[in-house]
Amino acid sequence: MIHLEHSAIVRAPREKTFSVLTDYENYPRTFSAFKSVGNIRREDNRVSFALDGLAVIDRLTPPQQIEREVKFKNGHIRAMFRLNAIPDGTEFRFSADITLKGFLGLVAPLVKRRFAKISAQNIVEMKRAAEAGT
User: Fold this and answer.
1) How, if at all, do strands 75-86 and 65-72 pair?
2) Which of 8, 54, 56, 68 has a CA positioned 20 to 30 A from the CA of residue 76?
3) Measuring CA to CA, which residue among 33, 53, 47 is closest to residue 119?
4) What is the pTM of this model?
5) How far, in Å, CA of 22 to CA of 84, rounded?
6) Would you give the end-to-end CA distance of the chain in angstroms?
7) Rounded to whole angstroms, how far apart are CA atoms 11 and 14?
8) Which of 86, 106, 24, 91 minimizes the C-alpha distance to 60?
9) Which of 29, 71, 65 is nearest to 50 (CA)?
């Protein structure tokens, strides 16, 4: 299993940061790592969607938390986005556990480096979008 953690201070209110993270329709515009989003279904505080062909389920606790599960052929990702209100905006914490099966398990260090790079870039882009206009 691969474990990753990132954190950042977002100079925007927690509600705005949460809104950027749950604006699924705009993921391809907000996050350069994502090319397509589709089949978005909202039921209460649960959202399921396809992200670049992968099945994603988010469980929302507005505006402080998103639990995300991503399933793919050779594994899955369980991620947590935590947003804490602070005087200067939002303390954002991201953690993910990635389980890989088959061949992907053999190249776990490469997958970890790639996923760490993508998630760090996503945080930069999320901050930019949340901080715009604030």
Assistant:
1) antiparallel
2) 8
3) 33
4) 0.93
5) 16
6) 38
7) 9
8) 24
9) 71
Q: How many residues does the chain have?
A: 134
Q: Which residue has the tokens 């052929």?
A: 73
The pair of structure tokens assigned to 121 is 């870039």
Q: How many CB atoms lie within 10 A of CB 96?
A: 19
Q: What's the one-letter identity of residue 24?
A: Y
- CA angle, 74 then 98 then 14, to 5°: 130
CATH architecture of 2-131: 2-Layer Sandwich (3.30)
- What is the rounded distance in angstroms from the CA atom of residue 17 to the CA atom of residue 36? 21
Query: Is residue 105 predicted with pLDDT exceeding 90?
Result: no
Domain ranges of the chain: 2-131
pLDDT at 133: 67
pLDDT at position 121 over 80 = yes
For residue 88 the two structure tokens come to 């200067």
Average pLDDT over the chain, rounded to whole? 95
Residues with Cβ within 8 Å of residue 67, at least 6 apart in sequence: 58, 59, 61, 78, 79, 80
Under 8 Å between Cβ of 93 and 85: no
